[in-house]
Specification:
95 residues; mainly beta; four-stranded antiparallel beta sheet; two-stranded antiparallel ribbon; 6 strands; 0% helix; globular
Length: 95
């Protein structure tokens, strides 16, 4: 969920109860020429990309929305958890 259904760059992304708004709808776009499951994740409401703040590699780093820029802070692996399903905790930043 993008906090407050914000359209602002830097708005935080958070866990939130399901509420049916576009603040909770994300589209996954496969990165061109990616031979693997590498994606940019874009919020339907704002049109902004998920971004690991300051390209941090630290556990617990903030995820926010930001203008799409193609950096590794905005590239995520979607790891197949088996049986053709993608489970929670299976989205990993490429940074």
């Amino acid at each position: 969920d993008v906090a407050g259904a914000s359209f602002n760059w830097g708005a935080k992304v958070q866990q939130w109860g399901c509420n049916g708004t576009n603040a909770q709808v994300f589209k996954f776009y496969r990165i061109r020429d990616s031979a693997h499951n590498l994606y940019m994740i874009i919020n339907e409401n704002s049109g902004l990309c998920l971004d690991v703040e300051r390209a941090s590699r630290d556990a617990g780093a903030n995820v926010r929305q930001w203008g799409c820029n193609g950096t590794r802070a905005q590239q995520f692996w979607v790891i197949d958890s088996g049986q053709g399903q993608y489970g929670k905790r299976q989205i990993v930043n490429d940074n």
